[in-house]
Amino acid sequence: MKIGVPKEIKNNESRVAMTPAGVNELVKRGHEVLVQTEAGIGSGFSDADYQAVGASIESTIEDVYAKAEMIVKVKEPIAQEYGLVRKGQVVFTYFHFASSQPLTEAMIQSKAICIAYETVEDRNGALPLLTPMSEVAGRMAIQQGAKFLEKPVKGRGVLLGGVPGVAPGKVLVIGAGTVGIQAAKMAAGLGAHVTILDVNMDRLRYVNDVMPPHVVTEYSNEYNIRNHIKTHDLIIGGVLLKGAKAPRLITKDMLKTMRPGTVIVDVAVDQGGCVETTRPTTHEDPIFIIDDVVHYCVANMPGAVPHTSTVALTNVTLPYILRLADKGYEEALNQDPGLAKGLNIQAGKVVYEPIKEAFADQMQMN
To answer: Is 142 helix (H, G, I), strand (E, B) or coil?
Structure first.
C-alpha cells in the first residue's frame, strides 16, 4: 500500500503523523511511504531521516494526497485540504467530527474512508489512540494555566504552589479521565490544592487512592460546580463523551460569579468544549477574556511539544497503521471490532451514531 504523510498545516501544528521508526516498520513490510518534504522538521526529524529508512520525499501536499491510498495525519484536514481528499481514500487521523459541521460535510462529499483516532477502542472500551495526547494535554493544561494566572497576562496573579506563609492556589478539575488525572497530578506536584469532580464514583475512588491528601474528590453536579468556581483560581475542563460533543457544564452566566483573573483551560475544546463560552484558539493567539475570566482554548495543545507528542502518538497508532496497510481497511476493520469503532464516515455516509446525533437538527444524514 502507498501511505502518505502530509505536513500538518493547521496553525502552529508542528507534530507529524509518523516517526522515521514507524516508516521503517512499514517499509520493511513492503509498503511505500510518501512523506511531504519537511513534514517532520517541527518534531525534530529531517527529510534525510525519513529517506534513510526508505521513505520517498514528495515536494507538495498535493503530490502526497494524489499518490497515496491511505493518508495518515495528526489533525483533521482543514479547508485547504478538503479538495485533496479522494473518493475511496483512507484517512486516518484525529477528526473530532462532532465539533465541526463543515468538516463533516466536506468528508461526506469526498466519499473517503474516514477513520478517527479518537473513537478507536481497545478490548476494555478505552480509547488507546486518544490516551497519549490526553496525557500530554492534561499535563500541559497546568503549565499553561499557571502561566496565564500571572498578572501581566491578565490572570489573578497567583502562584499555584504558594510560598511559606501564603496559601497555595486552588485548581478545579472537571472530569477524572485521562486529562483530569494528569492535570491533577501536575497541579498536586506544584503544591496546589486540587479538587477533582466526576460522576463516576469508581474513578473518584481511584483518584482518592492514588493522589496525595491535598487532592480531594467530589461528585460532579451543577450545585458543586457553581460553588467551586467562585473560589478556585484555575479551572480545567477535561470531560469527554466518546465521539460526541462535550457537555456544557459551565454556562456563560457562571462567569460573573468567578473572581477576576480566574483562568479556564478547556481541554475539551476539540469536542466543542465543556464551557459555554469556549471557542477554539491557537498557540499564536491562545487566550481571550470574557467577564474578566481568562479562557485558554487551544485546540491542539500537544502541538506545542511536538517531539514528545509525535513519538507518543506513533507508539500507539503504528500497530493500527500496519494492520490497515497489511490487510486493507475492510479486512482490518472486520478482524478488529475496536478499530472498526474508529470508522466515522464511509463512502459518503456517516456511520458513527454520536456524529449523527450531534448534527441531527442541522444537516441531513445519510
So the answer is: helix
Residue 336 annotated as catalytic = no
Say if 364 falls within a structural domain.
no
Clarify whether 291 is annotated catalytic.
no
Q: Which of 31, 96, 193, 295 is catalytic?
A: 96
Query: What is the C-alpha to C-alpha distance for residues 274 and 109, in angstroms, rounded to an integer?
Result: 29
Give CA separation, 185 vs 152, 262, 286, in Å.
Answer: 26, 20, 23
239 and 277 in a common domain: yes
Asked whether residue 268 is marked as a ligand-binding residue, the answer is yes
Confirm whether residue 75 is marked as ligand binding.
yes
Same domain for 6 and 141? no
Provide the 8-state DSSP code for 281: B
pLDDT averages per 10-residue partition of the chain, 366 residues: 96 93 98 98 98 98 98 96 97 92 96 97 92 95 98 96 97 96 97 97 96 96 98 94 82 97 95 93 95 96 94 97 98 97 96 88 60
What is the C-alpha separation between 297 and 268, in angstroms, rounded?
Answer: 8
Please name the helix (run of DSSP H) or strand (run of DSSP E) that holds residue 34, with its range, or none: strand 32-36
Number of domains in the chain: 2
According to the annotation, is 149 in a ligand binding site? no
pTM across the whole model? 0.86
What's the angle, vertex CA 247, arms to CA 246 and CA 250, rounded to 5? 115
